[in-house]
Amino acid sequence: MSGKKPAMEEVESSSEFPWSNTTLTPTTSVMIVLFAALVRFLVSLGPYSGRATPPMYGDYEAQRHWMEITLHTPVVEWYRNTSANNLSYWGLDYPPLTAYQSLAHAFLLNSSIPESLALTTSRGFESHGSKLLMRWTVLVSDFLLFFPAAVCFAVVYFRRFGGSGREGSAPWLLAMILLNPCLILIDHGHFQYNCISLGLTLGAIAAILLRREFVASVLFCLAINHKQMSMYYAPAFFSYLLGKCLKRQNWVLEVGKLGIVVIGTFMFIWWPYLYSMEAAKEVLYRLAPFERGIYEDYVANFWCSTSVIIKWKKLFSIAFLKFLCIFTTFSAFLPSCYQQIKAPSDRGFLYGLLNSSFAFYLFSYQVHEKSILMPLLPASLLAQQEPFLFGQLVCCGLLSMFPLLLRDNLILQYIVLFALFGLIFYQNGRHAWEKNSRRRSLCALRFGQTLNNVLFWIFFIGQKQRKRMCDPDLKPCSW
């Protein structure tokens, strides 16, 4: 009888969630990937940021304009204010890899609709054909980078942590990563290319679990050079890799080899701007726009939420706020970094990613509402272990994005994706939470849920108050 118990438990699990197992078959993977691609395609049929709203339009126009600039101007002028490149109109403010991606996509658009990228005369260009091609560039980027990285991670994760055969569902975990409603709404609704930097980061995480540390270092350096917000994960990568190197016999050599890989990757990406210190500074200045303030729009981080009471932007100088942000951010992620340097572990690395990205989101300088995608990635990777936390974070992320998506007229997509996520999440997420509940303190869970609700109600009420008072601290920004 005792030998049959595991089989009975597996049957019960599968009855609650029919495709629940710890292996991903090719058929299951293809079905989930195709469904996720279909959802993205349907969302992309809707409106986008800044549609028909001159003079600045929105993120769609920003991406189109970057294609125009990279196609028609020399590489050394991409981050420089010139007659052909007015930086006050959607100047490039992401690292060089984003510019190279814009150039690659520009070749595609220019070959089909050259008038959509005509220098200085194509501002605000909107046509059905150009929208279709622009949307396809995001879909293809997602399909080529984020999708394979997600499949790879799900396979590796259950090889590493799911050996008992009863610890969860690999298909469910893959679905949670690919059907994150916040990422889909921002990339395929609002219009951005977060799937590239997040896909590179996810590939680096999978490489870490596969013990391919050089590959992981290259991929993560590429992610940082695509979007500087990928630095949110840097403390976790640094502490884990340093801790691993310190455990080896010749740790100096190991650290040196990783350093060469990192420096070499950065030099390769930044090569066009390394001919002078001034050229490199021009790029760096564009990547750190401190004059924009400590936060933008209705971002649900510490500074924005507390600004209902403390007027951070009015009371303190930029220099002091930068110091304060650095101090609070470092204080938030240093404990987990110390733990990983002292005793590195794969599971600890995943929690470290969540901790460091959350620390940056809550306390760093110049945070946007779209930055919630950074902590959401590691939260989705831990969805099997922490379903309650993941579910709450997705709901809170969607709440903080509501004003942005309302301006974009994406409320229908917002509601449908919210419902779809809940439908799939509760098929397995609640069951996984109940299985792991014995290892958690019920008091801690109740306290965490209460604190979460209080904080976000404060944020929501504060947002309404600010709208009523027309507070310039929270002036909406189309960026």
Q: Structural class of the helices, strands and pairings?
A: mainly alpha
Instruction: Give the biggest sheet.
Output: none
Order of helices and strands: HHHHHHHHHHHHHHHHHHHH
| Beta-strand segment tally | 0
Please state roughly what percent of the residues sit in beta strands, choosing from under 5%, 5-15%, 15-25%, 25-35%, 35-45% or over 45%. Answer: under 5%
Question: Rough shape?
Answer: globular
Q: What is the CA-based Rg, rounded?
A: 23 Å
Characterization of the model:
- This protein has 479 residues and is mainly alpha-helical.
- It has helices at residues 5-16, 26-44, 59-72, 96-112, 128-161, 170-178, 181-191, 194-209, 213-224, 234-246, 251-270, 277-287, 302-306, 312-315, 318-342, 346-363, 373-381, 387-407, 411-436, 442-469.
- Helices cover 68% and strands 0% of the residues.
- Helix 8 (194-209) runs antiparallel to helix 9, helix 10 (234-246) packs parallel to helix 15 and helix 10 runs antiparallel to helix 16.
- The protein is globular and about 60 Å long.
Task: List the SSEs and their pairings.
Elements: H1 5-16, H2 26-44, H3 59-72, H4 96-112, H5 128-161, H6 170-178, H7 181-191, H8 194-209, H9 213-224, H10 234-246, H11 251-270, H12 277-287, H13 302-306, H14 312-315, H15 318-342, H16 346-363, H17 373-381, H18 387-407, H19 411-436, H20 442-469
Helix pairs in contact: 2-5, 2-6, 2-7, 3-4, 5-6, 5-8, 7-18, 8-9, 9-11, 10-11, 10-15, 10-16, 15-16, 16-17, 17-18, 18-19
